[in-house]
Specification:
Helices cover about 30% and strands about 10% of the residues. The chain is an alpha+beta fold and about 450 residues long. Helix 2 crosses helix 6 (about 280-295), helix 2 packs parallel to helix 12 and helix 6 (about 280-295) crosses helix 7 (about 305-320). It is globular and about 60 Å long. The protein starts with about 60 loop residues before the first helix and ends with a helix.
């Protein structure tokens, strides 16, 4: 997802839509408590068709309780681990209940990436955590175990996605709502926001015009009919416009975009990198926590978004003298074809085996090496980080890359994911932080010297 969307734009005063349904004391907020406000003027489809009258459909038919066991659909996606067999985060093209596609007789396939029907964090025998023998490695591993996203965290996001898809499909019947980003790519934490991609058609959508009109309808739906459990929906007009909102039931903040399908593709690419080598996820989590603590993980303030940080860690692990990661797009081009139909994207990587590296470096040594690489070795002025190529490559001459201090290639569309870093002062700050972290860790071998662990674990 495009994390460069400005959170600063959200600092203005937003008037909350008054609830029409009276508040019932001591009743928990549920998805079934729908405001009776009519949204007939807001729910005209993009093609101009009027939505079916609410009075013509019984309430129990319009809104099935989110916890009902209405579907016995079993999912076969080996790329995204989800906590229950009923999980439906990757919707089918046409079903309003959005079950994941069946394999239809496909033989059982074995890969290193956990399947959908497994727990979010599968049997340790299948995905063992790395051994931590030194103190720094133990600190990294302990932080990861405390802060990594749990099955219950993903459950809450999926419940919201399922309910919102049901409502949105009353406006756009052929649409699908995808949960993407850190929630599914293996790098989420317990406090990660949710990213949603609303796909209204297979063809590209003009983000300046068509996407904004669609999101305007979604925002109005959220602020009227769904106002009992969706709060503060706000349309952010950015390069990739979104509706930001908070789900009262899950207490999760969400960003919803329209047809930014690159986010779907890179979710499953990153998901595979996360699980083909067991040192990847702990390293990524600690780097994200460090960057957030040092205030260099906020694209709206001209620093690095989380997606760029993940790609920077992957790139470093690819460029070691004895690599810990390969280029998945080079080794398995058929699994990450940028032209692959969306409903097949989640199935493709399921048979990719673990990557066996001869590099036995500990988590601690790898973290120190990560900071050293970007503090002393990487040529920021002339090179671009490319996970697709598994190496640093020369910067392109295109206008998007000029006057940019950090260049990180998006693996599918080739854009610069770090384009938000456009001020030299912010770039210098980032470089200073990398250099300082490297020196402190090299000398003290204690994660607390760059990231107070007690506070980080409490925040999660």
């Amino acid at each position: 997802m495009d994390c460069s969307l400005s959170r600063a734009l959200l600092s203005g005063n937003i008037e909350a839509t008054p609830a029409v349904t009276p508040v019932v004391t001591l009743q928990p907020v549920t998805y079934g408590s729908v405001s009776p406000v009519s949204t007939s003027d807001a729910v005209t489809s993009f093609q101009g068709r009027k939505r079916q009258s609410q009075q013509s459909v019984p309430d129990d038919a319009k809104r099935q309780r989110i916890h009902s066991h209405d579907s016995d659909t079993t999912v076969v996606n080996q790329a995204v681990p989800l906590p229950e067999e009923r999980r439906r985060s990757f919707p089918s093209p046409i079903s309003i209940q959005s079950p994941v596609l069946h394999a239809h007789g496909s033989p059982a396939l074995i890969g290193c990436v956990p399947p959908l029907q497994d727990n979010l964090f599968p049997d340790p025998a299948g995905t063992r955590l790395p051994v931590a023998k030194d103190e720094l490695s133990q600190q990294i591993l302990e932080l990861f175990q405390v802060c990594r996203q749990q099955a219950s965290d993903l459950d809450r996001k999926e419940l919201c996605r399922t309910e919102l898809q049901r409502e949105i499909q009353l406006i756009f019947p052929q649409s699908r709502l995808f949960l993407v980003g850190s929630s599914l790519n293996g790098f989420g934490t317990r406090t990660s926001d949710g990213d949603l991609c609303l796909v209204v058609k297979e063809e590209p959508v003009n983000q300046k015009t068509e996407a904004r009109r669609i999101l305007s309808l979604v925002q109005k739906l959220f602020s009227t009919k769904l106002s009992s459990y969706i709060e503060r929906p706000q349309l952010i007009r950015a390069k990739v416009p979104i509706v930001k909102f908070r789900d009262k039931v899950s207490n999760v903040d969400f960003d919803l975009n329209v047809n930014n399908v690159i986010g779907i593709r890179n979710t499953f690419l990153l998901r595979t990198y996360a699980f083909i080598e067991n040192r990847v996820r702990p390293l990524v989590l600690v780097v994200k926590k460090w960057a957030s603590f040092r205030e260099i993980n906020d694209a709206s303030r001209g620093t690095l978004n989380s997606y760029s940080l993940v790609l920077m860690v992957l790139h470093y692990l690819q460029t070691l003298p004895e690599p810990i990661l390969p280029s998945l797009q080079k080794n398995y081009p058929e699994c990450f074809d940028p032209a692959m139909q969306l409903h097949l994207v989640h199935q493709a990587p399921r048979t990719i085996p673990p990557y066996i590296s001869k590099n036995g470096s500990s988590l601690g040594d790898l973290l120190i090496g990560f900071f050293k690489y970007y503090a002393t070795e990487f040529d920021w002025s002339h090179q671009m980080i490319s996970v697709r190529e598994a190496k640093a490559i020369a910067r392109p001459d295109g206008i998007e890359w000029r006057n940019k201090f950090i260049c990180v290639e998006e693996p599918f569309d080739g854009t610069n994911t770090a384009r938000a870093v456009h001020e030299k002062q912010k770039f210098d700050t980032i470089r200073v932080e990398f250099a300082q972290a490297w020196r402190l860790l090299r000398d003290k071998k204690d994660l607390n010297c760059i990231l107070p662990l007690k506070a980080a674990k409490q925040k999660r």
